[in-house]
Design goal:
- The structure is a homodimer.
- Chain A contains 11 helices and 10 strands.
- By secondary structure, chain A is an alpha+beta fold.
- Chain A has a 6-stranded mixed β-sheet.
- The two termini of chain A are 16 Å apart.
- In chain A, 52% of the residues are buried.
- Chains A and B meet through strand 1, helix 1, strand 2, strand 3 and strand 4 of A and strand 1, helix 1, strand 2, strand 3 and strand 4 of B.
Chain lengths: 274, 274
């Protein structure tokens, strides 16, 4: 469910919002290694919405669907105070290959599908809480307005039995690590932060703590997964290229920390706190 | 998609609202003759919602699901200004038996699955726009707060190849007749109004036009379908008992009227007008 007030920052077009509603759902499929086939989308529309607005939302939904080979097969419309795009995906998965949150084993390594921090920085720029200029500004904002789901990677992680557990990072990296730790009854020690260079630069300019952007941003749809280093080689080179090793699975049940012992807060992007 | 401001009248409890969200969807399955199996439900919750409120909504959703043999298998939560219960049903149907809106043939009769008018009257009572007392008040209000979907009838209409076309009346009887007429490229002449005795009594007391309650109310989840009189005998006696013949299918393409020639307005319950 995409809702304007929490999921559509100022500066995001209705077309981008429609597309994001699909991407959010595709990202959940990616985490499980499931292949989406069809979507049903219900729109809640404010009274003042114009025909051209609805068309833009529809174009965005369709764009997101086509990017991932999905057909939009039905839905509903209703009158709401917010703009609401409620999206349900149908798809297929081999139940023996489905990747859960509860499969991480002590000794596994922890990986992410890309770098973190620039998405949260982009959100701050859009909200006027941070500054960036020129090409950097464009790239930061684009990360928020055109999020990408890691569907190909997710499907390969499942099909080739690479991942022992997986989740998407839409509630923030820290939160995702805790989800895996709790579900798998393990601990996680972070050895390397997947900080994007753009985020480092942004944090320096805006006197923001870059670790907060990386750990608690939650505007990214990366995959966070556990595996053995050897198994990672089963991935195609193209997919492996963006994967970053960030830590290891430990027997410290429920504990997510850095190597120096500093504990990572179990907080994340929460719609009811944010 | 159930939204408090349009679908939850004053006096409807959150439990009833949760149940209604399921019933609305089951009614669409009933019209097609499809059997629902599983539901996914996303909640949009206002900031001031309490834990006990969410529990009541959940109990209602579960109640509606269990009444129809449905499992709730997933969903999402989000922060919204309205209460939103966005519900998607999955189920099965034999594509050869699926009942469409576009199957009515000239000479068919038009039927409804029960009487009309008391549901709209009940809504008026809840909204303080009409009065009723005692047992009558209770029955009027109950029709709104505990709507029933005609799933058994709908499935039998399809399985026994009784209905040539079918729709549920959730947007009002007049609107449903027009939907069938347009989709089937036929006309419909109404020979008998399925007015409930309760509605007649309410209209008299409240100086309301009973035909308006019956034709444009739209708070009921009855089935409106076309068939041949002979085929109707295939229905079990229990199901046939509530079916009312209200008219016949004509070759006056797109025209829905009474026998005396008076045209029925192509209007209904529309969230954007109502």
């Amino acid at each position: 469910m995409l809702v304007d007030r929490t999921d559509v920052p100022l500066g995001m077009s209705l077309r981008q919002a429609g597309r994001k509603a699909i991407v959010m759902n595709v990202s959940d499929f990616a985490a499980k290694g499931a292949t989406p086939l069809a979507a049903m989308v219900s729109l809640g529309l404010p009274r003042n919405v114009r025909k051209t607005d609805v068309k833009q939302i529809g174009l965005g939904i369709n764009q997101g669907a086509r990017e991932h080979g999905i057909y939009v097969v039905g839905g509903d419309t209703n009158l709401t105070d917010n703009l609401v795009v409620s999206c349900f995906l149908f798809g297929t998965a081999d139940p023996n290959l489905l990747v859960r949150r509860a499969g991480a084993r002590v000794g596994d390594r922890v990986y992410v599908s890309g770098s973190f921090g620039h998405q949260a920085a982009g959100l701050m720029v859009l909200l006027g809480r941070g500054r960036a200029i020129g090409n950097r500004r464009t790239r930061l904002i684009r990360a928020v307005l055109w999020p990408r789901a890691r569907l190909k990677l997710g499907i390969e992680l499942a099909r080739k039995r690479v991942a022992t557990s997986c989740i998407d990072s839409s509630d923030g990296l820290a939160w995702s690590l805790y989800e895996i730790a709790h579900a798998s009854k393990v601990g996680i020690t972070i050895t390397r932060m997947p900080t994007s260079p753009l985020a480092i630069r942004f944090a320096r300019t805006n006197k923001t703590i870059v670790e907060d952007l990386v750990l608690y941003g939650g505007e990214e749809y990366e995959l966070v997964f556990t595996s053995r280093p050897k198994k990672l080689r089963r991935l195609s080179r193209a997919l492996r290229r963006n994967v970053i090793e960030i830590g290891r699975v430990t027997n410290e049940h429920g504990k997510v920390r850095f190597e120096n012992g500093a504990v990572i807060s179990p907080r994340g992007w929460d719609h009811f706190l944010g």
